[in-house]
Amino acid sequence: MSVKVLVPTALQKFTNNQATLECNGSTISELFDSLEKACPGIKARLCDESGKPRRFLNLYVNSEDIRFLDGAATPLKEGDEVSIVPAVAGG
């Protein structure tokens, strides 16, 4: 199943400067594994040592924050769009 992934500029060095990727996965965790196969090194930027999404990243499936869904276990289906959005802080 194909899922569209929107990659922020800061991570595009792992994707050959592509802002959009098509990857496979039935959950966010599986999608991360698929991204790692296609773009070696990116998973370490997305996940902590326990495999959970890093706190400074916001992940959305079709505009829904995965923190309010099932986190890394959030199911994905054909045609879903996953956005990776770095957190912004400052004041």
TrEMBL record:
Show which residues constitute the signal peptide. Answer: none
Which SUPFAM superfamilies does the annotation name? MoaD/ThiS
InterPro entries, from UniProt? Beta-grasp_dom_sf, Mopterin_synth/thiamin_S_b, Sulfur_Carrier/Prot_Modifier, ThiS/MoaD-like
In Swiss-Prot or TrEMBL terms, this protein is called: MoaD/ThiS family protein
Q: Which residues cross the membrane?
A: none
Q: Which Gene3D superfamilies match?
A: 3.10.20.30
- Organism whose genome encodes this protein: Plectonema cf. radiosum LEGE 06105
